[in-house]
Amino acid sequence: MTFLIVLACLLLLILLVSWGKFNPFLALLFTAIAAGLLLGIPPAKLPASIQKGIGDTLGSIVLIISFGAMLGKLVSDSGAAQKMAAVLAKAFGINNINWALLVTGFVVGIPMFYNVGFVLLVPLLFSITYQYRLPVVYVGLPMLAALSVMHGFLPPHPSPVALAAQFNASLGLTLIYGLIIATPAVLLAGPLFARTLKGMQAKPLESFRPNELPSEQLPGTFNAFISALLPVVLLAATAALPYLQVNAPAAKGWLQFFSDPTILLLLSLLIALYSLGIAQGKSIKTVMVSFADAMKDVTPLLLIIGGAGALKQVLIDSGVSTQIAAGMSNLSLPPLVLGWLIAAIIRIAVGSATVAGLTAAGIIAPLVTQGGVTPELMVLSVGAGSLVCSHVNDSGFWMYKEYFNLSIRDTFRSWTLMETIVAFAGLGGVLVLDRFV
Known about the structure:
Layout: H1 2-18, H2 24-38, H3 46-77, H4 80-92, H5 97-109, H6 114-131, H7 136-153, H8 158-167, H9 171-194, H10 221-238, H11 249-259, H12 261-277, H13 284-317, H14 320-328, H15 335-350, H16 353-369, H17 375-385, H18 395-404, H19 408-434
Helix pairs in contact: 1-2, 2-13, 3-6, 3-12, 3-13, 4-6, 4-10, 5-6, 5-7, 6-7, 7-9, 7-19, 8-16, 8-17, 9-17, 9-19, 10-12, 13-18, 14-15, 14-16, 15-16, 15-17, 15-19, 16-17, 17-19
């Protein structure tokens, strides 16, 4: 009965947005309230659950999206994205530009959280597709597939690290096995699947539709790349911090401060303000106007993501994930498949990949400790299952939809299918690798 209520609420959400033409933020809030009441959350506690969901979701992402949008707008307006697009097109050729972006997403996705990588690389993608009149979904989906796979499969991302701790798995082996499995998964969900979407039309956010500048007004190649990708460089550098033998508490505190993604993005934004703004002859007032324009575009997106967080929290507080996991724990399936399936169903019901993965891990952990299952492969199996079928209760779904300005239908056809291919390809890779390790 619980699962039927969840499905009915998700159907209500889809109908409100697509047929009823409701604003997605309001539709998400109405659905969260309906789901909470139907699933037995006391009315007196439901507002707190909704507020917690909005607060927790936006608290971890609002500054990243805001700083990323400002940096992306500056990169676009200054001509840095146009310069980078020209360099990549010359190096790889226009016909292979989606492969260039796939490699970029793969490399950037290893040290960087998905949301950070998304807001930093999407302006470059939009610049390339506008400059060379290319279909944005076809060109961009391989890059997003790479970012998603890195985030779901590989340490040092939070979910794989947490799963590795639960299963007592080696982070080093998890990383190696994850790279082996991630490569074919990205190829299947990226370039191969994207070929079916060449005809899909998208009109991305207005802020990131660049005006072409004369070549003499463009920043230099080094300036363009280092200003746009400085957060990537800095975040990659922070990956080495845990290996530094720093004992002084004050020094440790400063290292932790500067390794925070929000602080690194703010620092990168200030550097870009000079290198792509003041150094290019722009006044601070002009750059601030660009920043304000960027925030106008992403404010509705932030509200939608907050609404998705409210729905997710209501589903978590109602105990849906625990009920589903408990109901499936007695299925007679191979442990690697069972771990994937539990994570997948919780992901579909709740929307959060992290909640799906950790809940499934709590159920499946005893099978791992009993032996007979490679812990590192279980991390990857559960991680793959937690990515399946991203849809209307997942903030990543709305982030993609709003940035690319797609319909609900086209978002399902592109984003949701891409994430599902990643999940099944990951399971297939785990089962194949299980025969050799």
